[in-house]
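Residues and backbone
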Amino acid sequence: MTIKAIIFDKDGTLFDFQKSWGKWGTKLISELANGEKDLMLEISRVLEYDLETKEFQKSSQFIAGTVAETANLIASVVPEKSVEQIIELQLNLSLDMKQHPVKSLKKTIDFLSTNGFVLGVVTNDLINPTRNQLIKEKILSQFELILGQDSGYGSKPDPSPLLAFCKHCNLEVEEVVMVGDSAHDLTAAKNARILGVGVLTGLASKTDLLKHSEYVIPDISYLPSWLKNRGQTRRGFKSI
């Protein structure tokens, strides 16, 4: 069946994960601990974050988890703050963070949209910051539907938000591809019976992703060529 639509994860797929969230992690931990070294170390331990390199470890639950899941992790070692307070701090700090788009982000999204593919975003982040980040990159209008973990369909690896996209766009699951950088993304795709494609702009390695999908490309700029090689393009379609 012909591929008609592409669902993208956000962090690690449209935006380079480590470059975007690395330094932000230090700021979050420092504010939570009020600069207290021992508490900073304890928070970094539960988040699996390296304070020296300012990087998340690839096993960190923060990578593919929701804001609430991260808040609950932190609350386990910072009991004086409520989960709600920690969520609010995360959101406030994310307002000023600089996202680093992956290679040829706008060019790739514009190209796929112009060539007739229906595009969507399904992220475990919240919907408002997601929309704001897409606005900054001038690509929001290219997406038919954007779903966050607060959109009412659950969060990946639950396949529900992917199936909601298919229903909204009146598409069969066989007509859709899910592109993501984590096991959560590809597991959600598999559970929805959607074809999954892994990208290496997150923290997972090619070996990690091949456990969940037979298709792994370096980044989303390779999608046009991948689609063309599968014969999933209309006449006149050329790779970027």
